[in-house]
Amino acid sequence: MAAESTLAYLHARGLQVEPEDLPPLLEEALQDMRQTLFPTNPETDLTAPEVAALKRGGFELAPLSSTSSDALARTAAEYAVLRDTSLTAAETARKLGVDPSRVRQLLAARKIYGLQVKGAWKIPLFQLVDDRLLPGLEEVVTALPKDLHPIAVYHWFTTPTPDLTPESLGRALSPREWLLTGHSPTAVAELATDLDNL
């Protein structure tokens, strides 16, 4: 019964994965993130630029406690879900109605965001709206710092920020919502550039 409810939970959230496949997915995600997850004092195993990049991405690099271990486990789980729900370059091309070479060109030019999984590109779904790219996406992705962690990119795109509060709505929008509602991508691109200074 527990396996059936887990399966229903996963499928309701768009994850076409069997419950027994979750442990290997999480193990693989943890392995990918081992540099930041396992050291008791992470800063000792990283270069200064790596430490700066992780801090800009919102990672705490203090020695691990049980609380921080829980937070890191949540990040690893989020990363596993992000990877599992992302599309391959070929799947993205089919969805957009273009040749796969066009998707690879966009990735190479940093006009769409992709993460590499075992040497292959995966494109997170938050960049797509039905069968097209999020309006203004190319301008925004180009402005993102190259060294942000995928979870930091995902959270940044989907978290409301006071810097994007249209007067007509009176509430903060996420960068994704801002672009979806037809606002200028320049404001979002400027915020993306500022991530380099955090």
Describe, in plain words, how this protein is organized in 3D.
With 198 residues, the protein is mainly alpha-helical. It contains eleven helices and five strands. The strands form two sheets. A three-stranded antiparallel sheet has the order 1-3-2. A hairpin with a 2-residue loop joins strand 2 and strand 3. Helix 2 (22-32) crosses helix 5 (66-85) and helix 8 runs parallel beside helix 11. The longest helix has 20 residues, at 66-85. The protein is globular. The termini are far apart. Mean pLDDT is 80; it is low at 34-39.
Helix tally equals 11
- CA-based gyration radius: 18 Å
Strand order of the largest sheet: 1-3-2
Which overall shape is indicated by the principal axes computed on the Cα atoms? globular
String of helices and strands: HHHHHEHHEEEEHHHH
